[in-house]
Amino acid sequence: METASESILGILSNQMNTILLKIFDFYLEISGKTYCGSAFYIHSIPGIMTRQGKFEHPAYGRYFWASNFILLQEPTVACLVEAIEHMISDGSHELAFLEVQPDDSEEPKAT
């Protein structure tokens, strides 16, 4: 069985979001399937809500929702890896994260 440290293909969030909001966007490959998800540091949620309420719409500051995400106790890659390894071991990664289908379209050929 693959481990999360072997199957995490990348941390996609930009550096600023990671520093200010503790958001990790990632994708992972397990047994030929690719999944994408996000991990939030539990204490960053109030900051996200405040920012959304200020810059997007006041109602966004009153609630928080996100799809394909998990909450982390610590804002570290090690905590993310530990969480994903556990989720892989019990199969819950299939419920928590979105499976990304491969793009089977062929690239146009130069003529």
Give a short overview.
36% of the residues lie in helices and 25% in strands. By secondary structure, it is α+β, with helices and mostly antiparallel strands. Helix 3 links the parallel strand 3 and strand 4.
Features:
111 residues, 5 helices, 5 strands, globular
Textual characterization of the structure:
- The chain has 111 residues and is of the alpha+beta class.
- It has five helices and five strands.
- Strands 1, 2, 3, 4 and 5 form a five-stranded mixed beta sheet that branches.
- Strand 2 and strand 3 form a beta hairpin.
- The chain starts with a helix and ends in an 11-residue tail after the last strand.
- About 15% of the residues have low confidence.
Give a topology summary.
Elements: H1 4-7, E1 8-11, H2 15-21, E2 23-30, E3 33-41, H3 45-55, E4 69-72, H4 77-90, H5 93-96, E5 98-100
Parallel strand pairs: 3-4
Antiparallel strand pairs: 1-2, 2-3, 3-5
